[in-house]
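Memo to structure team: turn this sequence into structure tokens by end of day. - J.P.
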Amino acid sequence: MNSFSLGYLAAGLGAGLAVLGAGWGIGRLGAAAMEGTARQPSATGDIRTSMIIAAALIEGVTLFAEVVCIILATKA
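Reply from structure team:
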């Protein structure tokens, strides 16, 4: 096995872990927002705004991780 295939393997595993982590995080975020809305319907707008901001930050970090993995794959 040469270093090229190990670089591609590392990039693939890193990208997969980044996407799994983001999916899990946004799923928990959505669940918590739904529970908060169910407990206090009058705060729906504030909860939604906070949820969207947090989801955008999670997606930003995931996109950065994906770019790092693509760079790793092209440098391998």
